[in-house]
Amino acid sequence: xxTALTSRLRACVSLPFFxxxxxxxxxxAVGWWESRRIPFNLIVGAAGAVTCVLCLIALAVIADFSAAxxxxxxxxxxxxxxxxxxxxxxxxxxxxxxIVELLVRWLWRxxxxxxxxxxxTLGLAFSVGVTLAPAGxxxxxTVVRFxxxxxxx
Length: 153
What we know:
Blueprint (H helix, E strand, L loop, with lengths): L1 H12 L12 H9 L2 H29 L12 H30 L4 H40 L2
Helix pairs in contact: 2-4, 3-4, 3-5, 4-5
């Protein structure tokens, strides 16, 4: 499993979107990162939309197989605020990518460009994984609730 994952990540790093010419000035490095912010947000946002849909489906399935009603969060706007906070933190972490790259370029001159491509790829993969994680938790919870409802408890 890890071999397949690492080979896919290496393949991503070699795509033109993840590569850049070197050497770049500090401003060009920041520009390289910022030119990828909108695609990053679209990709992570799409993963978030998938998570929301899968969580709603899981809640509907749980409601069908459970005698207990599904309660809304109190206050009901809490999920929207959580999504907004997640988006802000994802962008704060994204900004941390170019800040850390500038630090790496200052400390280890020749490794900054490789560092940027690798960290951008890993950061995007991690962000999508974290965004999809609640859907996995809800799927697991749905299976547990289904088993409990089926056993008559």
